[in-house]
């Protein structure tokens, strides 16, 4: 399986944010997207995820077989917001995502243990601290059967120990044949290709 972009362009509010982006990411590889504020990192991730229309070019999955014929079927997108219901418990949220995305490598309890949140699954998501919310959102990736991780500033709000743990999880995902595309300002501690987005304005 590979993720291919050819001459990809994106726009916001009718203005071109980026153009001519091309890459080929094989399974087991990571692409780290860097660049200053406003350079289009989030826009690129959202275009790849299909959450925004592309302005030109193409981005697609090849070799995903019957299980992952499209990016939509293959990806889990972790944006700035965590996409969790504040009134539901952490466990209930993760059960929802596990059902929605297809059973992933870990069960809910195991995933919570893995991100250091064992024992608090019963709490409403809204009770969690900023970093705990991000860790619970990372647990979504672990309960989901999704080989393509699209991550927007995934380590924002994480402490050093959690950052290091997440670096290990991304490396493991790649080692098991996954693909990671991550936009970041912070070093992520993973080996990967770098795509540097340009300045705007
Ligand atoms: N809904 C919108 N309408 C118009 N312009 C927008 C919209 N959303 C974002 N933009 C503009 O698109 C450009 C790219 O924004 P984007 O969020 O992709 O940048 P980024 O590289 O992720 O920035 P940061 O590092 O601050 O997160 C910015 O100039 C931003 O102001």
Automatic annotation (TrEMBL):
Domain ABC transporter: 3-200
Superkingdom of source: Bacteria
Keyword Repressor among record annotations: no
PROSITE patterns the record matches: ABC_TRANSPORTER_2
Keyword annotations from UniProtKB, A to Z: ATP-binding, Cytochrome c-type biogenesis, Membrane, Nucleotide-binding, Translocase, Transport
UniProt GO MF annotations: ATP binding; ATP hydrolysis activity; transmembrane transporter activity
Pfam family, one: ABC_tran
Keyword Nucleotide-binding: yes
Cited SMART domains: AAA (SM00382)
GO biological process, one term: cytochrome complex assembly
NCBIfam families: ccmA
Designated name of the protein: Heme ABC exporter ATP-binding protein CcmA
């Amino acid at each position: 399986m590979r993720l291919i972009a050819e001459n990809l362009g994106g726009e916001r509010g009718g203005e071109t944010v980026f153009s001519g982006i091309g890459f080929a990411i094989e399974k087991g590889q990571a692409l780290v997207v860097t660049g200053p504020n406003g350079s289009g990192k989030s826009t690129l991730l959202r275009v790849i995820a299909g959450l925004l229309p592309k302005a030109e070019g193409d981005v697609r999955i090849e070799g995903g077989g019957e299980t992952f014929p499209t990016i939509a079927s293959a990806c889990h997108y972790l944006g700035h917001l965590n996409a969790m219901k504040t009134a539901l418990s952490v466990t209930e949220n993760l059960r929802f995502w596990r059902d929605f995305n297809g059973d992933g490598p870990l069960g809910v309890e195991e995933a919570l243990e893995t991100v250091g949140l064992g024992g608090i699954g019963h709490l409403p998501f809204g009770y969690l601290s900023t970093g705990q919310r991000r860790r619970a959102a990372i647990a979504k990736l672990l309960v989901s059967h999704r080989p393509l991780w699209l991550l927007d500033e995934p380590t924002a709000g994480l402490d050093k120990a959690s950052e290091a743990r997440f670096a290990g999880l991304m490396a493991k995902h790649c080692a098991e044949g996954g693909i990671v595309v991550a936009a970041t300002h912070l070093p992520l501690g993973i080996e990967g290709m770098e795509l540097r987005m340009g300045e705007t304005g």
